Amino acid sequence: MTDITVFDTTLRDGAQMEGITLSLEDKREIIARLDDLGVDFIEGGMPASNPTDRSLFSSEIELAHSKMVAFGSTRKPGVAAADDAGLKALLEARTEWVCIFGKAWDFHVTEVLRITEEENIELIRDSIEYLVKNGKKVIFDAEHYFDGYASDRTYALKVARTAREAGAEWVTLCDTNGGSLPTAVSDAVEDTLLETGDCLGIHCHNDSDLAVACTLAAVDAGARMVQVTVNGLGERCGNANMCSVLPDLTLKMGYDIGADISKLTKVSHAVSEIANVAHDSFMPYVGSKSFTHKGGMHIDALLKDPHTYEHVPPESVGNRRNILISEMSGRAGISKKLDEMGIEPTEERVGEVLERIKDLEGKGYQFEAADASLELLIRKTCGLEDVPFGIPAFRIYIDEIGDNSIKSEASIKVVDANGNMEHTASDGDGPVDAINNALKKALSKFYPKIGELRLIDYKVRVLDERAATAAPVRVMIRTTDGKQKWTTVGVSTNVIEASLIALVDSMKYAVTKDGWTA
Amino acid sequence: MTDITVFDTTLRDGAQMEGITLSLEDKREIIARLDDLGVDFIEGGMPASNPTDRSLFSSEIELAHSKMVAFGSTRKPGVAAADDAGLKALLEARTEWVCIFGKAWDFHVTEVLRITEEENIELIRDSIEYLVKNGKKVIFDAEHYFDGYASDRTYALKVARTAREAGAEWVTLCDTNGGSLPTAVSDAVEDTLLETGDCLGIHCHNDSDLAVACTLAAVDAGARMVQVTVNGLGERCGNANMCSVLPDLTLKMGYDIGADISKLTKVSHAVSEIANVAHDSFMPYVGSKSFTHKGGMHIDALLKDPHTYEHVPPESVGNRRNILISEMSGRAGISKKLDEMGIEPTEERVGEVLERIKDLEGKGYQFEAADASLELLIRKTCGLEDVPFGIPAFRIYIDEIGDNSIKSEASIKVVDANGNMEHTASDGDGPVDAINNALKKALSKFYPKIGELRLIDYKVRVLDERAATAAPVRVMIRTTDGKQKWTTVGVSTNVIEASLIALVDSMKYAVTKDGWTA
Fold it and tell me: How far apart (Å, rounded) are the C-alpha atoms in residues B372 and B511?
């Protein structure tokens, strides 16, 4: 028996986030990840509302640890529980557990549902009793609980008590609009516990940037189930982020939960990939920058003792430390980097790499974020450069002659390591796209995997604003091959050249990295 | 006198975020925005550490509301205060206020600084006394205060007391590693207040996803200064987000602060643009999705009463509900703008301008920061367009053939308002520079003042990262004629075309603006 029950609602409330649509296959993949992580409950969706969720619940899902939950609402006003389509769909769902929501805010009862407060109490009681009588275990989500509590405490408490008396195993207090402060949540939870006993859950939204804090405050006050979503996905500003709540509860507050948080970083990235949303690099605990360190003094202290500048060990959540290479970070950082790359960090090598980095940084390069360019530079400086291809010549044409559409075309010659030449050309949406297309086209002849590369970000930064269009520009390009992501950098006064340097580095990295032994 | 003093550290601690580099011009622009917002203190940077910050502080910055603060550290161990280069740089900074940090965690004192606890106390005392004696008002940032308090309460309290006794006006308790819980922050603040009296600030990092909550908890416990950054920019997972802290403090907790939070959304977007980072759509309060509603039932209830599903009115932070409803708040702004431009804001004109803006924003344009492009668009839509020149044709050549230097050349035909044609060509450092040079060369024939224009910033933002090099890009160009500065915008999948649109707008603005009657 753990202290805290973890209820994941990524597939239901998380999927409400704008821009997210999860297919049946997506949902199944996320369920497998969550089960492996070890959450207690996985809310899969609302079988009454759409065919995907109906299919999902039409057969039993065998899981190692988690229990599936089907979501719905209390019966419609004026319809008997046994005749209600929503409750029927819940009974048909092949799950032991169901979760239904009902209203706890008097204002919503009278102004939105337009029924009396007593009728709403009956809806809640009937619906839960009916589900329980028909063999379901019920979790009751009290919508807008904290707004309700602030508006009419007695009524909100009555809703919670009614749900419990009707047979709900858990009563979840929801901060639906995300407007509550942790102190208010804490007070309401303590007060409500006196009515319901030890069966309270908490469900928070992040509109005040306090979803995690409110969740922890509720637990502090005695709530024993946390409803969370992976990466804080959810409507508007999202829900309480599982990837923050679980480490805070375990590493900071000492609670025992069933989930293995050392898998969190992986789960977090996987859900972003599946939901096709960018992964926030700066996310607490699981972001790729969460344990990134910059600045010489920091790095020295960190290498003496990671505890100096790290609140928890990155491994505890399956993440890793990342030391940025920059002018300031000095020999210790470079030495560590060489070591990670499987290259012996001799005094001489470290010195040469540092020299080269300083030289390029003076020209406007920045290797902090450009991991792939940095690794290529290190290999080159250490005499380990691969030269998979060369570009003896290229040309780009851009013109508009009286027809109002600008045309871009690039021609290119590429030579592989054995001296084979490919001469080709391509159009593009702009000159960078044209040269990217031509380069990929040429290289695909020698390296078919080039076809799988996808550029996922392209940034341009002007380095010396006073020089304006004649200023050196820094281009950073982020690429993925579907498995890994990397960043490369190029600097030139010519935006095309800077782009080409970064593009070439990226493709060089793609075709050589698998051959490196680390 | 307000309840809470707002200390912005976007330009110092915020700029520590990976990937952010702020030029002098960027910093000045952000300072102007923060002053207009009305924060109390703006920490501009560390004059001892880099030339940009030294220039920034080399002259006094006249502000309407805010006070500039220069940042540094306590003197180096073994160096007298009067001989310390860092303290010297602070004295030379043309600010009334300075902020220095010192260590409050015994572990850091003995393991990182490698001095005795008493020596550290002396560093702090000396440095503050020296600055005060030389006429500075001092804010002392107690680094790692909460870790220090947990490790050796007596020593942490002694550090805070020493700073106060030495003459610091404010003592800021910093959760440098971002690992503290709100309850721990609250306890330490209450306890420390007994030592220092009412002069405590709070500075939190977001590594546990609790920076905002810890900041509020400190204020609840009696701290009266909040150190925050716009959009929560900062090292690793960022700092406490001003855009959440200020509305929480005012709208939720009822505190009086000097800043006008109805400007927050604008400031938040402007800082993202200037720092060239993507704006998080899901950010609480100021994100473009923060007040976006999905799902029929929600919308119905919302239209009955916005209070049903909105924790605060979006206008309170200068945000908007959604495109349909926002038109109304948009109208007022456009109407005001027309008025400022000396154009009568008739219903019809405002409607047409709004329509045109919405259309272009749908294509990726953004007019908030592009003042000159917006004015040109308004004049055009209102039938007041000047057509000082046209560009019937241009061509750009970029090539590298075996000699390792990429050449860019542009040829262009420009026709003035009287039909006179100028056909010319120019080389350039890259294609954008070549076309800029050719355009300026041609236009100088007709408008000599074109020769005085200087482009002071050139930004490129990829709008849909998944489309990579074929994605639409937005180019923002900032130009000055020595007296005035203005910004123009262009959008295209072709970076050259987007640049050209912005360049042409800028030159059009330069040669016509003086003829407008406002």
Answer: 12
CA distance A162 to chain B (A): 23
* Token output for B391: 């560009």
Q: Find out whether B230 and B36 touch, Cβ atoms under 8 Å.
A: no
Structure tokens at A473: 């520009």
Amino acid at residue number A241? N
Q: Which of B112, B276, B429 sits opposite A494 (nearest CB)?
A: B429
State whether A496 and B398 contact (CB < 8 Å). Answer: yes
Contact A311 B208 (CB under 8 A): yes
Q: Using one digit for the tens of pLDDT, what is the confidence trace for A162-197? A: 999 999 999 999 999 999 999 999 999 999 999 998
Task: Write the CA distances from B363 to A405, B288, B379, B493, integer angstroms.
Answer: 17, 16, 20, 11
Residues contacting residue A232 through CB under 8 Å, at least 6 positions apart: A206, A211, A238, A239, A240, A241, A242, A243, A244
The residue-averaged pLDDT of B29-58 equals 94
Give residues with Cβ within 8 angstroms of A271, minimum separation 6. Answer: A10, A30, A33, A230, A231, A233
**Taking the complete model, does pTM exceed 0.95, yes or no?**
no
Tell me how crowded residue A416 is: count the other CB atoms within 10 A of its CB. Answer: 18
Instruction: Say if CB B45 and CB B53 are below 8 A apart.
Output: yes
Q: Is the distance from CB of B231 to CB of B283 less than 8 angstroms?
A: yes
What are the CB-based long-range contacts (under 8 Å, 24+) for B373-378? B373/B487, B373/B488, B373/B489, B373/B502, B373/B505, B374/B337, B375/B341, B375/B509, B375/B513, B376/B488, B376/B505, B376/B508, B376/B509, B377/B353, B378/B337, B378/B338, B378/B341, B378/B343, B378/B353
Q: How far is CA A289 from the centre of its chain?
A: 13
Contact status, residue A463 vs residue A474, Cβ threshold 8 Å = yes
Give chain A positions within 8 Å (CB) of B241. Answer: 209
Q: How far apart are the CA of A161 and the nearest CA of chain B, in angstroms?
A: 23
Rounded to an integer, what distance in angstroms lies between the CA atom of residue B105 and that of residue A72? 51
Asked whether the beta carbons of residue A237 and residue B289 sit closer than 8 angstroms, the reply is yes
* A348 Cβ contact list (under 8 Å, min separation 6): none
Chain A nearest-CA distance from B175, in A, is 10
Nearest-CA neighbor of A454 among B462, B464, B461, B466? B466
User: 10-residue block means of pLDDT along chain A (518 residues)?
Assistant: 93 86 87 97 92 90 96 96 96 97 95 93 98 98 98 98 98 97 98 94 98 98 98 95 98 96 94 81 92 69 80 92 62 84 91 86 78 92 90 88 77 91 89 90 91 82 60 84 89 86 94 77
Q: Which residues of B touch A494 (CB under 8 A)?
A: 398, 406, 408, 429-431, 433
Could you tell me the sign of the dihedral formed by the alpha carbons of B76, B79, B85, B90, in that order?
Answer: positive
Q: In chain A, which residue's Cα lies nearest the Cα of B306?
A: A177
Q: Which residues contact A150 (CB under 8 A, 6 or more apart)?
A: A184
Across the beta sheet with B389-401, what order do the strands follow?
A: A421-428, A407-416, A389-401, B389-401, B407-416, B421-428
* pLDDT for the residue B465: 52
* ipTM attached to this prediction: 0.74
Q: Which of B107, B290, B397 sits opposite A397 (nearest CB)?
A: B397
Indicate the range of A140-154, A332-346, B29-43, B170-184 predicted with least confidence: A332-346
- If one compares A500 and B467, the residue with the highest pLDDT of the two is A500
Nearest to A456 by CA among A290, A292, A278, A282: A278
Structure tokens at A264: 């969190």
Which SS3 state, helix, strand or coil, does residue A258 take? coil
Interface touch A458/B468, C-beta < 8 Å: yes
| pLDDT top residue among A276 and B113 | B113
- Taking a C-beta distance cutoff of 8 angstroms, is the pair B68, B28 a contact? no
Q: Where are the alpha helices (DSSP H) in B197-286?
A: 211-221, 242-247, 264-275
Which of A206, A231, A237 has the highest number of chain B CBs within 10 A, making it the mutation to test binding with B?
Answer: A237
